[in-house]
Write a structure and sequence with these properties.
Blueprint: E1 6-12, H1 16-32, E2 38-42, E3 46-50, E4 55-60, E5 65-72, E6 75-83, H2 88-100, E7 106-107, H3 110-120, E8 121-128, H4 136-146, E9 153-158, H5 165-173, E10 177-181, H6 184-200
Parallel strand pairs: 1-2, 1-8, 8-9, 9-10
Antiparallel strand pairs: 3-4, 3-7, 4-5, 5-6
């Protein structure tokens, strides 16, 4: 199996409220584009493993299961859902030993993981739903901007959430697209409309 897939990277605060919204938006994307090989991923639930010949994106699912997306030169060659047996590293290494001859592979640190995900992503959606968070997603935003991914970034901001003057300077400098929304239903509508146009042009 060799095919191209579309990955949408979702970023946001992991306070309980925003995290729930991110998970719901993820499910809405998958449902809305079912059958089109569109995958939405949350940074917190993804790991990346690299070797000289293959790259493995691992998504943690519910009920002790993981999905492995195996790439060669950015082309997807295999997808498998497997049960988590032991640690995540042990499960991944065991699977690769059986299926791909035990390549020397290394789990990526967070910045390298971000780099790889941003390279693979068709679009990067950052959701800012409330002010009372530590703003860790802004670090991820800056990482995207400083690594030439500004054209992929869409900043979804709930109406009434204030942004600092410095952040606005960066958003303006890098010409980041900002989409305001009023409530959760409005957010879902905006996300699906945007991605509909993005995917139709790919």
């Amino acid at each position: 199996m060799q095919k191209l897939i579309t990955i949408i990277l979702l970023l946001g605060s992991y306070d309980p409220q925003t995290r729930s919204i991110l998970e719901d938006v993820k499910e809405e994307i998958v449902k809305s584009f079912s059958g089109r090989d569109v995958y939405a991923v949350l940074l917190e639930f993804v790991e990346i493993y690299l070797s000289k010949t293959i790259q493995v994106l691992v998504e943690l699912l519910n009920a002790g299961r993981i999905s492995l997306f195996i790439f060669q030169e950015d082309v997807l060659v295999d997808v498998c859902d497997v049960n988590l047996e032991g640690s995540l590293d042990e499960t991944v290494y065991s699977f690769l030993k059986e299926k791909h001859g035990a390549p020397k592979i290394e789990k990526q640190k967070v910045f390298n993981k971000l780099d790889r995900l941003m390279q693979l992503a068709k679009a990067i959606l950052l959701i800012r739903d409330k002010e009372e968070t530590r703003g860790g997603e802004y670090v991820e935003l800056m990482h995207a901007l400083f690594n030439a991914h500004a054209n992929k970034v869409w900043f979804f901001k709930r109406n009434g959430v204030r942004l600092s003057a410095m952040l606005m300077e960066y958003l303006d400098k890098f010409k980041v697209n900002i989409r305001p929304y009023t409530d959760y239903q409005d957010l879902k509508t905006e996300v699906i409309r945007l991605l509909g146009y993005q995917l139709s042009s790919s």
